[in-house]
Amino acid sequence: MRRQNIHLRTCPGVLLNEAQVKGMLLRADSNGDGILSWQELKEGFKSLGAKVPRFRASMAFNIADENGDGCIDEKELEKVVKYASGLGYTISLCVDFEIRMCLMRGETKGITVFPT
């Protein structure tokens, strides 16, 4: 069997604004207390598409955790959002389109849909 090379095409993306970044980070609040632990913040950066979410979470804590309690509260979250927004996270328009096309064709293997 011959090996095939797969080339990813360049796809335009839309820059996330601060409200969208904040929403993505808050989705990682697994216990719903409005306060982000280091693990939750790491998951938030992972959902934003960070290549090294552990590093991003550590940097965010260094910048924002003013009281040193190991958690990011609502006030501190604003600093995290500004930091994360400055990193230029985007949503890919092509991925959205490709997933919609797969679903329309009934090709759902490997696709997980989460309710909003």
TrEMBL record:
InterPro entries: EF-hand-dom_pair, EF_Hand_1_Ca_BS, EF_hand_dom
Alphabetical list of CDD domains matching this protein: EFh (cd00051)
Pfam families tied to this protein: EF-hand_5 (PF13202)
Signal sequence residues: none
Domain EF-hand: 16-51, 60-87
Protein name: EF-hand domain-containing protein
Gene Ontology MF terms: calcium ion binding
Record SUPFAM superfamilies: EF-hand (SSF47473)
Annotated organism of origin: Hevea brasiliensis
UniProt keyword list: Calcium
